[in-house]
Amino acid sequence: MPLPTSPPADHTSPGGGSLDAGQDRDKLCRLADSAPVMMAYFDGPRQLCTYANRTFMQGLCDPVRSPLGRALADVLQPELVAQLSHVLTGTLQDGQALTLEQPLALRDGQRLWVEVTLTPHLDPQGRRSGVYVLIVDQSRHHAAERALLESEERLSKFLQAGVEGIFFHRDGHIDDANPALCELVGLSLHDLLGRPALMLIAPEHHTRTVRQLDGQQDVTFETSVVHQDGTRIPVEVIDRGTMQHGEPMRMAVVRDIRDRHATQARLHYLVHHDALTGLPNRAAFLAQLDHLMVAARASDTQLALLFIDLDHFKRVNDSVGHTRGDALLKTISQRLCQCVRSTDRIARFGGDEFMVLLPGVRDRDAVVRVAGKLLEAVGAPVTVEGQSISVTPSIGIALYPQDSDTPDVLIKHADAAMHVAKGRGRATFAFFEPAVATTAYDKLMLEGELGHAIIHDEFALLFQPQVRACDGHPVGVEALIRWQHPQRGLLAPNEFIALAEQHRLIVPIGAWVLREAARQARLWHDAGWPLTVAVNLSTLQFQAPDFVASIQSLLAETGLPAGWLELELTERMLMDDVPQVCARLQQLRALGVKLSVDDFGTGYSSLSHLKELPIDTMKIDRSFVQELPHQRESAAIASAIVQLAQGLGLSVVAEGVETEAQRAFLVGQGCDHLQGMIISAPLTVPQMQRWLHAQPALVATPGT
Hints:
Elements: H1 18-34, E1 38-43, E2 48-52, H2 54-60, H3 72-75, H4 78-94, E3 98-105, E4 111-122, E5 128-137, H5 139-161, E6 165-170, E7 173-177, H6 179-185, H7 189-192, H8 206-213, E8 219-226, E9 232-244, E10 247-256, H9 258-272, H10 282-299, E11 302-310, H11 313-320, H12 322-338, E12 345-350, E13 353-361, H13 364-379, E14 382-384, E15 387-389, E16 393-400, H14 407-423, E17 429-431, H15 434-455, E18 459-468, E19 474-485, E20 489-491, H16 497-502, H17 506-526, E21 532-536, H18 539-543, H19 547-558, E22 565-570, H20 571-575, H21 578-591, E23 594-600, H22 607-610, E24 617-620, H23 622-625, H24 632-648, E25 651-655, H25 660-669, E26 673-675, H26 685-693
Parallel strand pairs: 16-17, 19-21, 21-22, 22-23, 23-24, 24-25, 25-26
Antiparallel strand pairs: 1-2, 1-5, 3-4, 4-5, 6-7, 6-10, 8-9, 9-10, 11-13, 11-16, 12-13, 14-15, 18-19, 18-26, 19-20
């Protein structure tokens, strides 16, 4: 569509030249056509369109029908005309421009939110001659305003519904607050508006709060607010810059952290106290001990540390159950507290162990009196669920600074003294004495080192050969454990096995011995030396529920034929629970494993039970062999064991054979196998291999 005639000029150029005026009008028309707004001009009283820019025609006009020469009511949309009709006349009459906002539908169906401006056109005499129409798309601005309004409405609803206190403040004064904040401080919104924000904060925290908010940075900090009734409430404040109603201000979220503090306090209590008795635990006691030792050093006074261990407490749990055992421990802890001063310290050190710390003691007599009271109080019977239970304590006492000036050593010395008390018959107390406590202390140290030895593989196996008595042919070996201690050197079993059994470390140690012995036996078999390997078992090891399964797994793992493994049990182990022992031995026999009775003659075996057990071999204890052949009683016992074994169809091994006279006697009695120093001392693997090379050819038949 060609451009319409431009609106009439209000004035002419100074020169009055029509060519210049026409050029100016052309420029204005081109400029108007390029504008992103809708422009039109309606001339005269009839309001006929004499000009419309390209944006106006593209957005509102029928492409087939030009708006030129048509009245305003025919050009604009009816709903827009209806909106303008009541103001159009006034606009033209008073000469004032009018602007309004409303929705507008384009010819393509798109709906916009527009700003419509009507501006009258006046002639040189000031009379109106037409009206300019300017339509500007305000959709984005309108949408932004609507979104802002909706956002503020949502924020208002959120603030009203929030469970955390929120308030807005400007220049340090409260501008708005939600109901949660009002409830937190016990004040109404009316009471808060316009008041200083600091009125919410406890006075003792004002300086710190002002410092936190200095600089208007986003901050998070903890403080306390004051309720109307004076209660201090710990809170976390999150203060951020924001906008409200288009204006910058600060928003503070006030979070009640009383539950958090209570949880933290509970966790702190649990970290430092025993859950069962409520007494300070080991960690808390160590801190107290260190603190009180420093104080004693400064005041030149002494401390007494009492290490209390309940005698045979495991029996209580095993006999009456852990619930009653726990009740007993709670009662004992209460009794301990009743026996000491308020300045003394008591702790549960773990399990059935307690610590009592006596600061400012004058002499040993005072400590003795306290120890006596503790013995009496703990030893008194306790009624739990209608059942009377009694335990006694063993108490070890160490003094500061006489016995040690460091916490760890003082505790070790008290522990060593406690073991001395147990060695004296239990239910008593003992002071630490270096000369007396050396053995107990060494055992204590060895106990800790034993666990280290298991982890760091400090054990080794020696092997002592067993030969046929009739011709000296090797038939097997006995595996003997040694501990290669880093400081004490090579330790024999009698120096650590009892300790390992006492602290249940014998189970992992025994498993290691079995695995290493079986592995080495397999290597010898592969090298052409078919030796039966005998391994001693401990009671705990044999009684383990999964013991038979572990042997089966061991044989599968190492590939050792079951007949080349011999398990040695003591008489006492066989008599503990004969039916259960017999059942377990039958399971082992079913695997093909050899079974022997070690140290026979030293126990209390019943012959009637012995004949029922699936035993392959008896071993004559070295205590009888050492006195052969001249000691009559030992000779009679050795001879009787051989005859008994032969009668039961068992083989006999004599251990501890050291002389030719002993060998000759045993051979004469019909003993099957010999073991001892006359044959060979216990050997390392390389030594054993050299010994084997020097022997006659071996016969690959287990047990022959």
